[in-house]
Amino acid sequence: MTDNVDVQELEKFSQLAHKWWDKDSEFKPLHAINPARLAFVERLCGGLDGQRVLDVGCGGGILAESMAASGASVTGIDLAKKSLKVAQLHSLDSGVTVDYRCVSAEALAAEAPASFDVVTCMEMLEHVPSPHSIVQSCAALVKPGGLVVFSTLNRNLKSYLLAVVGAEYVLGLLGRGTHDYARFLKPSELSRMARDCRLQTLEVKGMQYNPLSGACTLSDDTDVNYLIACRRAG
Fold it and tell me: Which residues of the sequence carry a binding annotation for S-adenosyl-L-methionine (predicted)?
């Protein structure tokens, strides 16, 4: 483990990097929930056109590219070099421009504080040793009054049964060992981290993914996957 990085997590995603844009692979759920995530961000920032956006933990670029296609100037950062290479190649193929960089959120926060109108960090907090450090960095990177959006997994029996046992071992939607239940965060815990970093929680929404229909909807049920939107104090 180096800095705020779990080397085993990086290796795990590097092994799967070539599958990022295969909608029938382990990343199928991410492709399914992406329209809902994108719509949530767009609604809360009043549209992405012309916005300067940072996607922290961008992986293969699923969300980053969709935000760029919606008119934003997007920077995507990740420490998994193979995933970034896939993201860059897909960007060339699609013609949608995203600036991908292999840099940590902490390092970029020191380099370019208060540089972005919107910062997103999706499905990443449960994969790092110190989620608080990521929240702090996101708060530093967004401009005063700007929007920060996180998504992660709640920590309770239902989320363990659905996100770990169901998704990884019963349905095989995700590879076994994808998630460490101990790293899941309750909305109250994430809201407290955000508040400690001068981020005001605006809205919390649950994401429900139906593996049979492949549809994803947002609701007030935050028991498993959830989104939390915050505003940086001016």
Answer: 37, 57, 78, 122
